[in-house]
Each structure stands twice: as C-alpha cells, then as structure tokens.
Amino acid sequence: MMKEFTPAPDSASIVSVTDRVKPVTLGMGVTSVHFLGPRAAFVGAEENVAFVDAEGEISTVAAHSGGILSTASDGKRLVMGGDDGKVVSLDAKGEVTLLATDPKRRWIDAVALHPDGAYAWSAGKIATVKSGKNEEKSLEVPSTVGGLAFAPKGLRLAIAHYNGATLWFPNMEGSAEFLPWAGSHLGVTFSPDNKFLVTTMHESALHGWRLADNRHMRMTGYPGRVRSMSWSVGGKGLATSGADTVIIWPFASKDGPMGKEPAMLAPLQARVSVVACHPKNDIFAAGYSDGTVLMVRLEDGAEILVRRNGTPPVAALAWNAKGTLLAFADENGDGGLLEL
What we know:
The chain is mostly beta strands. It is 0% helix and 54% strand. The chain starts with a strand and ends with a strand.
C-alpha cells in the first residue's frame, strides 16, 4: 500500500499564483522544456526549438529536418536526436551543431549527456558514446534501446532495453554488465549518489537495482505507464508520473525503497503527466492530463496552483538552475513562465 496525504478539501482553498504567470503561446506541439542559461528552450515535436526569455519574448531555431524524438540537457547545451538520423546540440546562444549522423539514417531514439561533455545516442540496438577527443565507441545490446543515462560519477552508461538494462564503461574492454528483469524497459536514471539504477517500463511499473549487489527493487502499483521521473534535491526521493497523484519513492537510506511505501502527494481527478523537482528546495512542480500545474511542498503536501485545468495535457515542465523560474507548456504549446 502507498501512503496518501490528505488533500485540501477543495481547489478553492489552494493558494493560487496563476495571476503571476507570464503566458507563452508557442504555436507548435511541445514535448519538453529545458533551461539554457537564462532562457527556456521549448522543444517542438517537429523540427524547431523555441527560446523564451524572462520577458516572454520568443525566438525559434530550426534543429532538425523532421520529428525530434529525444532530448537531454545539462543547462549549457541541449542535445537532441531526430527521425532524420541526426544528433545535434543547441547552445544558449541558439547555435546548432551537428554531432553525429547515423550512417543508415535510422531514428535516434535516445540521447544522454555527461557533466564532462561526453554524449551518447542510440539507433536501433546500437548505443554510441563520444567523449572528448576520443573516437566513438559503440555497443550492441540484445534489443532496441529504450533509454540512456550516464552515471553521475565516472564514464559509465546505462542502456535500457527489452528484459533488463546494460551497464557499460565505454573506455574499458569487456565491461558491459547485464541487469536482468523481464519486460520492456523504456527510460533509465541513476540516483544522484550513484547507488541505484531505476527504469521505467512498458508495463505500469518502475524497476530498480541496488548497484552494490544488483538486488531488485519492484516499484509497482501505478494505474498507467510512468513517462516522467525527477530526483528531489540531494536524491532523497524519486518523484514520478503515471497515477492521479505524484508518487515519490524514498531513497534516503542504503536500501532505497525496499520494504518501504512511497508517498502520494497532490491528488487530482486527472493523471499526472510530468514532474520536475526544484533544484535547491524540497518542493516539486507537477503537470496533469487536464492542464493543471501545481507546486507542492514535499514535507507536508501543501499545494500552490500555478495553472488551472481545461487544456490538453501538460507536456513540458522545468526549473532553471537557480530555481527562480518555472517553465511549462501543454501539448499544443500553450504555457507560461512563473518567476519566484
């Protein structure tokens, strides 16, 4: 059983900051948002990225000649993969750099970015890493790659695929380690302390491994597929979408969520579509399938209404590095910026 916090009796009693939101109308379908320097970069479903500054001014950059399938950002640059078979990077000035082209022009299904500048991408069953001036290193896994993530320490790549995940040190021969678990694994993340690996699955579940001994962590009970995960400050909790509340798994102890119940915060009569934890404080933002955006305090579940319902699902949500700006948009590209 998951423990549930008692919600406020009705939405009218929730503190609202909707009047402080600067509206943003992008005029394109949006899949994610990332901050590059002071500007929010809203990634379109097709071709373009829209930069929005704190004043709400919009400038659009063409990044791909087709659909944008995957994104990763470190705050300095945004790396994207497209159905044009290209991996490109976008910097805070709006300059696009071609990083790689798949020789068979296959779709770039996943990308990942390492703090030291290394990057990775996948096409079909092949995951490729490029670090510094080193040549590209590639690894073939048993099935199509579902997701990629770099470990926070050392050059190690996690590759999610069918029936498990593979951990790989690209600079070490024969270093690929297989972590088995039946089912299709689509997304992957390391805990900030490097002790746990968690995947999202095609089933309505997460799966985790404690990396010290590869012990399994079953993280089930979702009514829908988990499409969004975000680590709270210090990695104490993992906030997830996939239910009509934000489900937060505890990771503060050496056993992670093993034998523990997750917290359930911010319940609504709508499915959580995307979550983003604040970079410095124990709060998070959540977007819902009915267009609602809430800010929530982890300690007691106190809620602040950022955006009212009545629109398509929220598809994009991100904080800037200082935690002073929150950017969001629904699937149609209608959103806003909230300065705290």
